[in-house]
Structure formats: C-alpha cells, structure tokens
Amino acid sequence: MSEQPFIRIGSPTRGGIIAIADHASNRVPEGMELGIPAELMDQHIALDIGTAGVAERLARKHGIAAQIAQVSRLVIDLHRNEGEDALVVTSSDGHTIPGNIGADIERRTALYHRPYHEAFAQMVAEAQPSLILAIHSFTPVMGSTGEERPWDVGLLHNQDDRAARIAIDLFAEMGLTVGDNEPYSGKQLNATMDRHAEANGIPYLTIEMRQDLIARRSQQAVWADRVALVADQTLAALSSA
Fold this sequence. Notes:
- The chain is built from 5 helices and 9 strands.
- It is of the alpha/beta class.
- It starts with 5 loop residues before the first strand and ends with a helix.
C-alpha cells in the first residue's frame, strides 16, 4: 500500500478560509523509480519550492486549515484533470522522465489523484468555506526561454475573479509587484479551483509566489503572514459587497 497522497493540518472553521497546496512535495512513493538525477527532485520540475512551509504556517499560526500534497508532480500532477496528457508527464523542462514512459496511469490516478481530490471535496462540503486559497510558487526565470519573471506574486483566475481583483490591489498596496493571471493564466490552468471553487460558487485566491522569495523558512513565515492578511481582508471585502 502507498502512503496517503496528502496531509491535513488544522481543522476548518465552518464558513471561513481553507487552503490547498497541490505541488508542495517532491516525494516519490517507495518502490517507484522515475529514473532522473536526484538533484532534479529539489527543483521546480518536481515541486513548488516553499509552498509546503507557507501552507503549514497558514494552518498552524493563522487557523487556515490546509490540505498539503505528499506526492511529487512528477509522479502525478494533482493540479490536472483526470485524462489530461499532462497528468503523468514523460518529459518536463527538457528532461525525459524514463520511469513515466509506459506508466500505469490509471493505477496512479486511483492511488493518488482520486483520493486527494475526493478528500478535498469532502473538506469543502463539510467546511462550506467562504474563501479557498490555492498555494503555488513559480521560478524567477522561465527555464525554456530564459525570460525573467518580474512579479513577486501573481493571482490566477478563470471565470470567477471576485476575490482575485481585491487581492491584487491588496498585495500591490504592500509594495509588491503583482501579476494578474501571471506568470500563468488561470484561464488555461485552473483545474483544482475549477473543480472545488468555481463549480461550487466559492470565491478563491490562486496565489503564485516567486520561489526565491519563499525558499527559506524565515521567508515562508513572512509570506504566510502576508497571505493570511490579504485573505482575511479579501473575505471581509467580499462579505460587505
């Protein structure tokens, strides 16, 4: 049996704020070999650097219960929909992933992807949150092109941008450089929030932090404080609208 594909930290406050971190881990289940150099497992190819620490701090210090992934995106990408080609990649950032060639995708889906999303769906149903946070990080430079990414933080959104519009202004008021659907567009990649937030009419913030700003624990603490403040103020603004 494989270990659970997530950990849950904190107990949700009904009607409050909850968080999820899809790419927080570089763990590869015991007995599985991806066939890539070990150093790649500490890079963005394998996980969103810093997000586990931010999500944990949100839960432990700020009372924002969090579901945090415990399996690498190279094993299965929890921020994709079942059936998508990118669910289990055979190459990433120019690196071939030999262990994923011919992989039993249905088995990995049943072991990791499905339980992860079923558990979060249950968390949403029980908590009835007024706001969901999706915690991600991005590289300072686009690996394939060498293009620099100037943003400190980005807010992604698809159809529902109610919360994002508020949060963009709040982060900007902190003196940060803020991306609106940057460095990625939520209109192209928003699987987890499409499923658990937009489908349920729940406002959400998909927060992309630049990974060099949250690589250390001290930085993660600072950013967790910022995210919690913005989340609280966003929820207050939504409630009074």
